[in-house]
Amino acid sequence: MDWKRGAYPEFEIEDILVTLFLLKTPKGRKQISEELNLGEGTIRTLLKKLAALNLIKSQQKGHSLSEKGFKVVEAILDLFSEPVEVCSIEDFLAYAIVVKDPPQFKSIELRDEAIRFFARGAMILRYLNGEVIFPEDNRPLKETLPEIAEDLEKLPLEDGDLIVITWAENRIDAVKSAIHVALVLKGEQIPVEIRKLEE
After folding, report:
1. Is the C-alpha dihedral spanning 135, 188, 159, 141 positive or negative?
2. Which one, of 135, 156, 104, 49, lies nearest residue 123 by Cα?
3. Which residues form the PH0730-like N-terminal domain (predicted)?
4. Digit-coded pLDDT (tens) for 126-139
5. Mean of the pLDDT values across residues 135-151?
6. What is the pLDDT of residues 31-75, one digit of tens each?
7. Which of 102, 135, 164, 166 supports an S-S bond with 177, CB 3.0-4.6 Å?
8. Domains (ranges, CATH) in the chain?
9. How many angstroms separate the CA atoms of 45 and 124, rounded?
């Protein structure tokens, strides 16, 4: 799959997922455009494609998920969580995402993917035996970064989960780079209609 920004389409699968997460509550096009830092024309195209798949409905108060859209979001959330803000890292906004039942991975490759996707940095962690650890050496996160370890306690973690934390110059780059890493791990399991939208 080619993740590079091309002239067309003007949005990525990461933008689609952020939009679906946003539309759990009604939002106007302008609001979505600001959240994703994409032009209103691009958002119009994206929303049109989601509507054509019956994933969203449009009303006076804005766009929101349809019943089918909620089911698709539930299917995505079975694979990985929505990004959640955690305390800042190196003065950058940071977001964490929990990947359920992750396949084999190399932390360094996942970090590189995040940085290639506009993150300033990334941390790959595991939740094992009730503790968040660095997978390379099983060192507990709380020993080096207790504030982040405390923040992660808010997440619904289960044994074996992978936690991706990314940080970036702005909120949307942090959010999308975290989603990007989750997609590298679970992309083939994303509902097929979402994957088709990117073609």
Report:
1. positive
2. 135
3. 12-71
4. 999 999 999 999 99
5. 95
6. 999 999 999 999 999 999 999 999 999 988 899 999 999 999 999
7. 166
8. 13-77+193-197 (1.10.10.10), 84-187 (3.30.1360.30)
9. 34
